[in-house]
Amino acid sequence: MSHVTWALVFACLGGPAAAQDAGHKEPQKPAATTAAVVAAPAMPKPAPAESIPNKPKQTPEKPLFNALGNGPAWHSYKAHFVTAEGRVVDTGNKGISHSEGQGYGMLFAVAAGDRDAFQRIWDWTRGNLMVREDFLLAWRWEPDKRPGIADINDATDGDILVAWALVEAADAWSDEGYRVAARRIALAVGKRTVLFKTRNEPLLLPGMVGFSAEDRADGPIVNLSYFVFPAFPRLAEVAAEIDWDSLTQTGLDLVQRARFGSQKLPTDWISMSGQVPKPAAGFAPVFSYNAIRIPLYLVWAGVIDQKDLDPFIALWSARTQSSLPIVDTSTGQIIKWLDEPGYSAIADLVFCAVSDKALPSGFTTPAANESYYPATLHRLAMIAAKMRYDTCLTR
What we know:
- By secondary structure, the protein is mainly alpha-helical.
- The chain has one domain (6-392): Glycosyltransferase (Alpha/alpha barrel), CATH 1.50.10.
- Helix 5 (156-173) runs antiparallel to helix 6 (176-192) and helix 11 packs parallel to helix 12 (372-388).
- It has helices at 6-13, 72-81, 99-111, 115-128, 156-173, 176-192, 232-236, 244-257, 293-300, 306-317, 341-355, 372-388, and strands spanning 97-98, 140-141, 194-195, 203-204, 221-222, 270-271, 278-279, 286-287, 324-328, 333-338.
- A hairpin with a 7-residue loop joins strand 3 (194-195) and strand 4.
């Protein structure tokens, strides 16, 4: 899910529209294009992760329903990014919409207890993205084109987010129709995008087309930020036929195995073709817009072991500013800073989870004029904190 253009995806994958970006991140460039930025300032030497106290005080998990609250954080998000029809607009990517954004919007509506908004977002999603025959969602819709969908390839994390939101809505409002829809999508994800018979089984493909060994010489390709860890137990409730526990374990194993460069960071796109993971060919070898969600999903799922979070803690502890860095793992150098404050909410949540550090005073007041992606990340971090780490919110 990035500001990857499909023309570039064609070039990178050498086939039909195959990699998806979920519409909010910087353009993915082939690795060869990174030469112009390798002279960027080097990262400060990371602080040893051991220097950060590991005294987590995780509270019993609370429901997602009403975790955000029907207050300013939701009202502002809805006003800026959700149209009257229920389309979630990616303001950082030419106003497109995508399955990821629709899924996040649906989750936020449940977390705000706003059934009317949930229904509008779901109706738009169902009417505009569910154009496939297998219950997966077309990943991208463009407002200035007719038809709005030029490519019906799916984005697996978008599918997962929408299914997860439907499970939460079914419980919140006792609606079996939502549960049936969640089951259909979850089963399609498990049966059509999860590879169970591989050396590193099971693997979650980022989409139906373009990521398998048949599609790419270095396939299969994975994107660890598509392993939405807190969603898997909820999907298991509606699609028990799929081995979500094994998928979770694969993701956790990869969090520790897919560590590249001196700072041991995962790249956004990872090749699983050999005995060990490696950065995928044709994509810049960066820890970037996609991969920053990995620690968010880990701590949201209650995974707070130091060994899983060490690289992120070390990187963010060494920051010289509040922004989050994009790092070229091949050189260890910073190539960009993510300045909008919503990004830093992820680091704040991680430090809360691993060390019981109080969250900043402004954590529950997202900035008013951020673009879609950092605004979304901030609210995700708020919900995760409320569900699992509310002691950090009350001090």
